[in-house]
Amino acid sequence: SRDRVALGAELADGSRLHGQNTISHPPPPPSLKTWPTGEVPFSQHNLVDKEGEVPLRSPIRRVFYLANDGDYTAAADQDRPEVRHCAHPAVLQRLREAEAIVFGMGSLWTSICPCLIVSGVAEAIADDSAAASVVGEGAAGATGAAMTVGAAGRPKILMLNGSHDRETRGMDAVDVVHAIVDSLNQGRKDGRRLPPSAYVNVLLVPRGSDFAVDEAALRQMGIERIVDVASERDAKGRVVYGAHAGVDALRMCASGR
Predict the structure, then answer these.
(1) CB within 8 Å of 8: residues ≥ 6 apart
(2) Which of 82, 232, 245 lies closest to 162, judged by CA?
(3) Residue 228: which H helix or E strand, with range?
(4) How many helices (H) and strands (E) does the chain have?
(5) Residues annotated as region Disordered (predicted)?
(6) Residue 125 contacts residue 199 (beta carbons within 8 Å)
(7) Domains in the chain, ordered, with CATH?
(8) SS3 of 64, please?
(9) Is there a contact between 226 and 203 (Cβ–Cβ < 8 Å)?
(10) What is the pLDDT tens value at each position of the chain, 257 positions in all?
């Protein structure tokens, strides 16, 4: 859609937040609002403090989209009904034919999960038949080694973040997998709830990540491959994937090696 879309979040305590900035970043503290009326150099509605972190009053349970009626005020958001968006057919086709699926790094609840609740995405990621056909056709005429889609399906790789943020404070690796899986199942048209292994079967973990990793619990969920990746610290001291190590690990797992 080229229209404005609004994101909402339901918290574990049953309360709701409306708007991406409200979910991911705290509203600007009153001390920042010091300009006289008429002299603000930009809209305060668009002012976002991405460095501050006001803790959420309760963990996020799910995210959803709100109907677009042209009224973009906060008051209107409170009464706006939920809507479901459908993915473009071309996107779904690419997802079905991809030799590997990668859930990249980023804001879990406001960047990654909103893409996963779109109708059609879950089915396309879970369906390995088209990918197996494409890989088979490629291997038939190839002279080098080719990737194969085994019984466990094509690689579906989750790249765990190295540090917590407002959206994920207190979560561990198992919680992140559940968030991904629940979001995908939420968007299914048939209402089915597939197991985690249908969507994620490989986990990349930057060494020293803030997210605790319970390997036994993850393997019980069907994630058989957990890869420890060399890490480094960014300018703010946060754990990130080592530039070359991250690329090498992703390439290795995506190729099925």
Answers:
(1) 16, 17, 18, 19, 23, 63, 64, 65, 66, 77, 82
(2) 232
(3) strand 225-229
(4) 9, 10
(5) 1-33
(6) yes
(7) 89-131+152-255 (3.40.50.10680)
(8) strand
(9) yes
(10) 566 788 999 999 999 998 888 888 766 555 544 445 455 444 444 444 445 578 889 999 999 999 876 555 555 556 678 889 999 999 999 999 999 999 999 999 999 999 999 999 999 999 988 766 555 555 444 433 344 445 568 999 999 999 999 999 999 999 999 999 999 999 998 889 999 999 999 999 999 999 999 999 999 999 989 999 999 999 999 999 998 999 999 999 998 87
User: Alpha carbon of 244 to those of 62, 72, 82, 156: distances in Å?
Assistant: 34, 43, 42, 20
Query: Which residue in the block uniquely carries the two structure tokens 């300018």?
Result: 235
Between CA 239 and CA 254 the distance in angstroms is 23
Q: Residue 163 is encoded by which pair of tokens?
A: 């540090």
